[in-house]
Amino acid sequence: MKLVLVTNFIPSRFDAYTFGFIILVRPQFKDDVGLIAHEATHVNQFWRTFGFAGLLMRVSKKYRYECELEAYCT
Asked: What is the pLDDT, as a whole number, of residue 74?
């Protein structure tokens, strides 16, 4: 389950941002299939870790890089 919201309420350095199972996308990128697929991979990681992916990404650089690599490969 994922929820995609189009908004400008995103940190300035991101075009899209995933918070749990919610994907926030800037209006100019709402049709960018690759970007949404990348963020959807982060949603899958969230569910796969029972909601701990965000915490794990903050405390482990290695885990963050592995997650980003997986997301960039989609």
From this structure: 84
